[in-house]
Amino acid sequence: MAKLWAIIKREYLERVRTKWFIFATVFGPIFFGAMIIIPAVITKNSKGSTEFTNARILDATTSGIGQRIADIMNRERQPGSIPPQVIVVKPSELSQAESTATQQVMAKQVSGYLVTDQRTLAGEVARYAGRNATSLGDMERLRGAVKEALLTQRLQSAGIDSSRVRDLTFIPLQLSSERITDKGRGGSGTVSIIFAGGIAFLLYMSIVLYGQNVLRGVLEEKTTRVAEVVFSSVPAETLLAGKVLGVGAVGLTQQILWVITTVIMFKLRQPILAKFGVSTMPFDLPEISIGLALLLLLFFILGFIFYSSLYAAVGASVNSEQEAQQAVQPMLILLVATAIFITPILENPTSRVAQVMSLLPFSAPIIMPLRLALGSVPWYELAGSLIGVFIACLAATWFAARIYRVGLLMYGKRPTLGEMMKWVSYSR
């Protein structure tokens, strides 16, 4: 036990004292806090793009829809910007008009041109071409202007005052959702989704980043032949356990510090935004019970041990960084496959996909905490997930310890799967 503790302490202190750990631990929450505050301030202070109105409208209809669109676009026009110009053309002259407008766009005289024809009047399609065609904001505003112009024209054709209808139908309603768990009200549903997504992201990144650290540490010990010296006084199993637990403690420390500082940033978010004149809705973080916190911690530990053991086995079986990157691909595929399902499960945490992914050992350490943060999970699913991950951890550590013991002392060509299976039998 003393040797195990000494290895854990060495692995832990060696990493937490590095400048990169301190930088990432401090800068991470500041970065996330800035991502919360800066976009809101920019959105408040920014106006519509000047390129949105600096356009030609080629109206190949006789209904005046082009002028209606221009009037709507003018409502969002910035002072000093160029208003849209409407050019009424005959359908037979549309091709030539488009060619001329294309030349104007290429000469940077206008940002683009909108084409309206009979298909536009039918509500099917309106065509736009321009330099700002990749601006999602401009294109969405342009689409809204066309839809509003069509609605206005149809209402007037039906003898209805379009401005009166707009006043009656425009209702800026906001929906506030609150989840209810087995224990009662559980806070905002939107906040719970954001919180759950954040937990899944932290678990995913910690396993990937610190699992890679375990691999590099093992590979370094092998290539520098430090392992040969250490093995003379420390059993391979103890060395492996110390490395995995030490690096895992580093990841846990960073996550705890990130959570604490992120909570502080959320508390300061509203007062800071208020100083910039940005009004926000109340955004209270969900309460985390002791039981939930312990479950999240348990899943992190089990998941990290599972993947880190496999990373260590890979590090012991290869001879270079290039071989390691190739050999680690299967584990990365499992992690990426898990990450792909995060968004669908956020949308429907009780689906069959969520239930299955919560039981698979390679995905349960990330998906089950995600579901726990979203709401209550049946006890039998939680128990099955914990048992499955625990058994997978035992199998992974058993396999990795035997590969680790032989692999660290083997040099030369990269072993095949058959040779690695022989290593397992040698270590019995």
**Which consecutive residue ranges, at least 5 long each, have pLDDT under 50?**
184-189
Overall body shape: elongated
Residues in β-strands, percent: 5-15%
Cα gyration radius (Å): 30 Å
Count of β-strands: 6
- Oligomeric state, counting identical vs distinct chains: single chain
Largest sheet composition: 4 strands, mixed
SS content category = alpha/beta
* Total separate domains: 2
Please tell me the overall pLDDT.
77
Can you summarize this structure?
This protein has 428 residues and is of the alpha/beta class.
Describe this structure in words.
It is built from 18 helices and six strands. The chain has 428 residues and is α/β, with parallel strands linked by helices. Mean pLDDT is 77; it is low at 184-189. 29% of the residues are buried. It starts with a helix and ends with a helix. The chain folds into two domains: 2-33 and 188-426, no CATH class; 55-164.
